[in-house]
Please model this.
Amino acid sequence: MLKTQKLLPKNLAANQVVVAMQEAAVNVLSANMNVLYVVRDQGKKVWVALGATTGNMAAQNLKLLKKTVAAANDKSVAAWDVVEQALDARVMPVLDRVGLAAPAQFGVDLFGKGLHRVSAQVVELTRERRMAAKRAARKPVARKVVATRHARPAAGHGARLAA
Model:
């Protein structure tokens, strides 16, 4: 037998030191459990806040992207207007004097029609992408599964066992 076991009193439940140690251990355990519950609840709050912040940041980035694309589009339209004005002011009179204005104007018209066609396609693709994003954002509806009953044979289960 160990020397420490000889030193312990025979009836441990009656010992005030042992009772105090048990109470302290229970208090430490309950405090640890409370800390775990608080940490779990705070963790949930952090994840919810993080999700909301991420959603806000994504919305802000999307707005910024739209503004940037709109600004780039405006600049490209302005640049195209400058090119078109330069063609009309400088190149077309020279081609008209040489006698080549009609084919050049035809090419410019074709290019303009092609540009309008491409612009229409961009608008259509943007609309389709927006609709696809809306469809993806919707949650799928859970369908109710109905159990069907299988038809029982006319003879019954007992008739098969007897055969």
Notes: The radius of gyration is 41 Å. Helices lie at 3-7, 16-98, 101-137, 157-162. DSSP finds four helices and no strands in the chain. The CA atoms of residues 47 and 53 lie 10 Å apart.
